[in-house]
Amino acid sequence: MTESAAEDRAVSATVEAAFIGLRLDGVVLAMCEALEEEDSERLFGAEEPSRSQITRWIKAGLVAVDGKVITKAGFVPNSGSSVRVTVPVPAPSALDPDPSVSFEIVFEDDAILVINKPAGLVVHPAAGNRGGTLVNGLLAYLGAALQPIGGELRPGLVHRLDKGTTGLMVVAKTEHAYVQLVRQFAPPRTVHRSYLALVAKLPKGGVVSEGMIDLPIGRNPRDRLKMAVDQERGRPSVTHWRVEQRLQGGYLLDLQLETGRTHQIRVHLGAVGAPILGDPLYGPQPHMLEEKIRVAAQVLGRQALHASKLSFVHPVSSHPVEYRADLPDDLRGLLNVMTGDL
């Protein structure tokens, strides 16, 4: 299935041979899951649509196959058919500012805010989690003027980090900045993100100190909370890695994203035998680690992943800018254990 650029709150795709026999609701679900992370958030907000929600879209006449509206979820499109989904605009929902949400400000001007996200902070509200997120904190700091910028549940956000990942994020303070920054995530990308990760082993398939992981990623068919390498239906995904520091008990890796799939670094490193320490979804089996590292990773309580560098073209000045954030104290503690200092 080849997905075209999503615009005007619509998703279009051509059904490939691999999807012959799949019901229309399944085809649309696969289309939505195949979107780039940034496109998915722009279209759907905090969460991807469920199959039951997609069924309601189909019954409401929001899905067309080869230009003809189809209202039966069980309809089976032919290979090569064009499927288009008109994504309904979600009803606006008020978000409460929360001044108790704290984050480090790395840079700020009239157009953007660059922050260093702490561990454990959820970026935006979702079902069952309406408060205590970065967005609630941003609304308290920047005021109501932020609310209309971007999506209803993620005002100002042009990208995100997982709850357990620390590091740099850029927030748009104006509609102009938002539009300009979102465009930079589309090819040719001018947003570049670097991460640091602690692992016990080097990735397979690389040379002594660097390598590239080129494995397609899609939704895990057995667990929708997880992603997985999927050679048949996954989206192309490329991660570059190099050894930043060799440690007594493992390695500190520097990672560069060529694509931006959900959980990309975590899935890729797990797939090549170098899962990130402490990762609750894709991490190494505890019994495979040296005891002191196993204990330290358990104390960490999150994936040892940090967004250390962020560069992009400033949306107003058009000048390239770059920001860096050192390892937080908890990752520094694990690093010290792995160097034998503790």
Tags for this model:
22% helix; Pseudouridine synthase; nine-stranded mixed beta sheet; alpha+beta; 342 residues; Structural Genomics Hypothetical 15.5 Kd Protein In mrcA-pckA Intergenic Region, Chain A
Structure description:
The structure is a single chain. The chain is of the alpha+beta class and 342 residues long. The chain folds into 3 domains: 2-86, RNA-binding S4 domain (Structural Genomics Hypothetical 15.5 Kd Protein In mrcA-pckA Intergenic Region, Chain A); 104-183, Pseudouridine synthase, CATH 3.30.2350; 192-339, Pseudouridine synthase (2-Layer Sandwich). It has 8 helices and 16 strands. It has helices at 24-33, 37-44, 51-59, 134-142, 175-183, 264-271, 291-300, 329-339; strands spanning 2-3, 10-14, 63-65, 68-69, 82-86, 104-108, 112-117, 166-172, 192-199, 210-214, 217-219, 227-229, 238-247, 250-257, 305-313, 320-324. Strands 6, 7, 8, 9, 10, 13, 14, 15 and 16 form a 9-stranded mixed sheet that branches. A 5-stranded antiparallel sheet has the order 1-2-5-3-4. Strands 11-12 form a two-stranded antiparallel ribbon. Strand 15 and strand 16 (320-324) form a beta hairpin.
Task: Indicate the topology.
Layout: E1 2-3, E2 10-14, H1 24-33, H2 37-44, H3 51-59, E3 63-65, E4 68-69, E5 82-86, E6 104-108, E7 112-117, H4 134-142, E8 166-172, H5 175-183, E9 192-199, E10 210-214, E11 217-219, E12 227-229, E13 238-247, E14 250-257, H6 264-271, H7 291-300, E15 305-313, E16 320-324, H8 329-339
Parallel strand pairs: 8-15
Antiparallel strand pairs: 1-2, 2-5, 3-4, 3-5, 6-7, 7-8, 9-14, 9-15, 10-13, 11-12, 13-14, 15-16
Helix pairs in contact: 1-3, 7-8
